[in-house]
TrEMBL record:
Acyl-CoA dehydrogenase/oxidase C-terminal domain sequence ranges: 250-381
Names of required cofactors: FAD
InterPro entries membership: Acyl-CoA_Oxase/DH_mid-dom_sf, AcylCo_DH-like_C, AcylCo_DH/oxidase_C, AcylCoA_DH/ox_N, AcylCoA_DH/ox_N_sf, AcylCoA_DH/oxidase_NM_dom_sf
Keyword rRNA-binding included in the entry's annotation: no
Keyword Repeat recorded: no
Descriptive protein name: Acyl-CoA dehydrogenase
A Pfam family it matches: Acyl-CoA_dh_N
Annotated family: Belongs to the acyl-CoA dehydrogenase family.
UniProt cross-references to SUPFAM superfamilies, sorted A to Z: Acyl-CoA dehydrogenase C-terminal domain-like, Acyl-CoA dehydrogenase NM domain-like
Alphabetical keyword list: FAD, Flavoprotein, Oxidoreductase
Residue stretches making up the Acyl-CoA dehydrogenase/oxidase N-terminal domain: 6-119
Molecular function GO terms recorded: acyl-CoA dehydrogenase activity; flavin adenine dinucleotide binding
Residues spanning the membrane: none
Length: 410
């Protein structure tokens, strides 16, 4: 495919890259990730006010930049290169699209301008809700000490109780979008509810996560008042959650490619100056071959991520395979990031194996993303199922077997 970008897309990428290079080095990343909110609030405000990053894919009527999902995904490649700790994933990729798709007119007018202006938000639902590795038709809202999150209607008001774990961006979110059971266990359904970050009875506990740049929280709801997204007549959100999962897969794929390319570039630079036996390590043929193979792998993952970015931003009649392309791109991006980060540790030698070296930031991102949104083989298997490959293969095999048996009988 022709991955030529428009002038506007190139300008978005260039401006974001320049800003992050100045403000988001490895030391700044570690410091920001260890703040209570899990990100640099001043840098996030700058990204929101100067570049309109959280509102990139939102309409101008709601205070957004009026671009689209493609531009948002391409921006994620730049944030991935810097391993930017930010509420971007929870706010712009997960929460804002759901509010725009399912919210009432009043909810969209009230919430989307706030999100576009940079108010952090988080989706309190397990990764299974995004339907990346399997259908989200099961009872994925369960778990926790209270069986997940339950919603009950009392005196005309909805109230939530229960617990949601591993809420990405949960520590600093000013708005939570919570998935909860309704109707009791016998007739249980799932709905999404809006909960302000300062709601009475809401308790958030930051979790110790493998990847500090993706802060996670345990959200406990103790009879918390909530507003149903879409109003009282809202239907089951699982189809829309699956569509949001496609956007999330494309964004995460671009992030992984950005991180992999930065890890590779840092390794190439290091082996060019690190000497062993009187010559640069990078001059050895074995090292050249390893880096060349890695370069090819990263470039292939980049092509897949760009295709997914185009697919999620195109009308369904032009790109009907976005639900297949995005998870496959994510799988390939995670593979490339795992390989690039592993080689970065090895080719940096003794210093690369020290826990404090910045190469471990990429190792942790690779492992954490696969644990949260994978594993890779499950992403590929579910995408193949969506594409009908298993059904086609099974039908072909059955037809071949029947024909063979008929000939044998004859």
């Amino acid at each position: 495919m022709d991955a030529a970008f428009t002038e506007e897309q190139e300008e978005i990428r260039r401006a974001l890259r320049e800003l992050l290079r100045k403000r988001c080095g490895p030391d700044e990343v570690k410091a920001a990730a260890r703040t209570p909110a899990g990100h640099d609030a001043a840098l996030w405000r700058l990204l929101a006010q100067s570049l309109g990053l959280p509102g990139l894919a939102l309409p101008t009527a709601y205070g957004g930049a009026g671009c689209g999902p493609t531009e948002l995904v391409l921006a994620c490649e730049e944030t991935g290169q810097a391993l930017l700790p930010s509420p971007l994933l929870g706010t712009a990729v997960l929460t804002a699209p759901l509010v725009e798709a399912l919210g009432t007119d009043a909810q969209r007018r009230a919430l989307l301008p706030r999100l576009a202006a940079g108010e952090p938000a988080a989706l309190a639902a397990p990764p299974a809700a995004l339907a990346l590795t399997g259908p989200n038709t099961g009872d994925w809202a369960g778990g926790g000490r209270a069986g997940g999150v339950q919603a009950r209607r009392t005196d005309g008001l909805w109230r939530l109780y229960g617990q949601a774990d591993q809420v990405l961006g949960g520590p600093g979110a000013g708005l939570l979008l919570v998935a909860a059971h309704t109707g009791g266990y016998a007739r249980s359904g799932i709905r999404l509810f809006l909960v302000p970050g300062d709601a009475k009875g809401l308790v958030r506990r930051r979790l110790t996560a493998l990847d500090e740049t993706r802060p996670q929280a345990r959200v406990e709801l103790r009879d918390v008042p909530a507003e149903p997204l879409g109003g009282e007549e809202a239907g089951d959100p699982r189809t829309t959650l699956a569509r949001t999962g496609v956007l999330a897969a494309a964004a995460l794929a671009a992030e992984a490619v950005g991180a992999a390319s930065r890890a590779l570039a840092g390794t190439v630079e290091y082996v060019g100056v690190r000497e062993q036996f009187g010559r640069p390590v990078g001059s050895f043929q074995a090292v050249k071959h390893r880096l060349a193979d890695l370069y090819v792998q990263v470039q292939a993952a980049r092509s897949a991520a760009y295709y997914a970015a185009w697919a999620v931003g195109s009308p369904p009649e032009q790109a009907p395979d976005a639900a297949v392309a995005a998870p496959l791109a994510l799988a390939q991006g995670l593979d490339a990031l795992r390989a690039a980060s592993g080689q970065a540790v090895q080719l940096h030698g003794g210093i690369g194996f020290t826990w404090e070296h910045h190469a471990h930031l990429y190792v942790k991102r690779a492992a954490s993303d696969e644990l949260l949104f994978g594993p890779v083989h499950a992403l590929r298997a579910h995408a193949a199922g969506r594409a009908g490959l298993f059904t086609t293969a099974a039908t072909t095999m059955t037809s071949t077997t029947t024909t063979t048996r008929g000939r044998a009988a004859a």
